[in-house]
């Protein structure tokens, strides 16, 4: 009886917390609407995508980790971004590099097991500081910083851009580029379309009847799977909006 009472209380508490989180998200969305990542300049015309984004930049970092406590500071070891067309939802270009950690350059066996990233893949690769410069060059080359071209980052959860990148930039004493300050958390887009909380990438793929491809926790494969979720949500009529800010 007591166990049953505890289960019901836990369920009620979880539901209330989810509702509160959803209300907070809606309030935040209204406060920030209709801002996007870059389209503060130029005017949109006939034939533009309904959601207003020319490109979605699907991003999924992998970072140093261990089975009990993550190394401190935690450092990015894989930095992949897909440039996905806002019209066709096809991937038009890819930025992808492995990254050498500055503080703990030796990966743990747990990290290799989880991500499939072996020591050789990070040794001799650029640091995060260099990677951010290379990424900025890529953004320019791809026309993503050109006035009138709108884009928005897409991640699975808020960890990549709310926690991981800002904390490492703060440790390195370098600024977070302003284009990383807002993004679409695809779990929230998924929730809006399906009415169910998008618990994780694997669950969203399963529920959308999409087969998982590649290796889970490989950053580049995770990006490809997130891009497939994005495309499927678009096919189901999603109207994409920025969901998260920092
Ligand atoms: P993901 O985007 O889910 O592939 O995970 C991003 C990063 O979070 C990984 O590179 C790890 O640093 C950390 N991470 C994810 N899952 C775990 C886990 N089960 N245990 C420890 N760290 C994890
Ligand atoms: Mg990943």
How does the helix and strand content classify structurally? alpha/beta
Beta-strand residue percentage: 5-15%
- Annotation field: number of helices: 8
- The total beta strand count reads 7
Q: Please summarize the sheet with the most strands.
A: 7 strands, mixed
How far do the termini sit from each other? 44 Å
Order of helices and strands: HEEEEHHHEHEHHHE
Radius of gyration: 19 Å
Ligand roster:
adenosine monophosphate, magnesium ion
Mean pLDDT: 87
How would you characterize the overall build of this protein?
- The chain has 246 residues and is an alpha/beta fold.
- It has eight helices and seven strands.
- Strands 1, 2, 3, 4, 5, 6 and 7 form a seven-stranded mixed beta sheet that branches.
- Helix 5 links the parallel strand 5 (151-155) and strand 6.
- Helix 6 (186-194) runs parallel beside helix 8.
- The longest helix has 31 residues, at 2-32.
- Bound molecules: adenosine monophosphate and magnesium ion.
- Magnesium ion (MG) is lined by residues 60, 62, 217, 219, 222.
- Residues 60, 62, 217, 219, 222 line the site of magnesium ion.
Furnish the topology, listing elements before pairings:
Elements: H1 2-32, E1 55-59, E2 62-63, E3 76-85, E4 91-98, H2 109-115, H3 119-122, H4 128-141, E5 151-155, H5 159-172, E6 182-185, H6 186-194, H7 201-207, H8 219-235, E7 244-245
Parallel strand pairs: 1-5, 5-6
Antiparallel strand pairs: 1-3, 2-3, 3-4, 6-7
Helix pairs in contact: 6-8
The protein binds adenosine monophosphate and magnesium ion.
Question: What features would you highlight for this structure?
Answer:
alpha/beta, globular, binds adenosine monophosphate, seven-stranded mixed β-sheet, disordered N terminus
